[in-house]
Amino acid sequence: MWEIAEAGDSVAEKVGEFSIDVVNALALDIPAGTAIYISESNRRHMKNRHPWEYEKYHSRLPKIFLAPDYAGINPSDGSIEVIKVFSKTIKVAVRIAKDGDYYVRSIYEVGKSRVDNSLKSGQLKQLTKP
């Protein structure tokens, strides 16, 4: 089971770690294995904004972070994005908090054209072979 961490005034659960592939592909200034948490406020946000994706995929977050198919940095907010292709293509956004820890902010389905466009623009890097 993942460890529990304090996230401000609420408890957060560790749901994954940044893989060496993501760290290297995005030239992140963090070590591979850096923890990724989810707080109760993030859970509420995802349940409200993307309920079916959260319900179906939140238990798969460790697998998504362990072996994503794509990774990128969102130019508008600096969040780290990882994408895993299941029967649907699922994107998870991770942001750094004021406390210096990384938290899942959102989880939702993206279309193939969005992935293709992000690859062409260089915003996304492919981590696995199709």
Tell me the β content: 35-45%
End-to-end Cα distance, whole Å, is 31 Å
Mean pLDDT level: 90
- Placed side by side, the strands forming the largest sheet appear as 1-2-3-7-6-5-4-8
Classification by helices and strands: alpha+beta
SSE string, helices as H and strands as E: EEHEHHHEEEEHE
Oligomer: single chain
Low-confidence stretches: none
Largest sheet features: 8 strands, mixed
Rg over CA atoms, rounded to whole Å, is 14 Å
Relative helix content: 25-40%
β-strand number: 8
Number of domains: 1
The general outline is globular
**How many helix segments?**
5
Kindly describe this structure.
- The chain is of the alpha+beta class.
- It has one domain (4-126).
- Helix content is 31%, strand content 35%.
- The protein has five helices and eight strands.
- The protein has helices at 20-26, 40-49, 51-57, 61-66, 112-121; strands at residues 4-7, 10-17, 35-39, 70-73, 80-85, 89-96, 102-109, 124-126.
- It has an eight-stranded mixed β-sheet.
- The longest helix is centred in the middle third of the chain and has 10 residues, at 40-49.
- It is globular and about 40 Å long.
- The N and C termini lie far apart (31 Å).
- The mean pLDDT is 90.
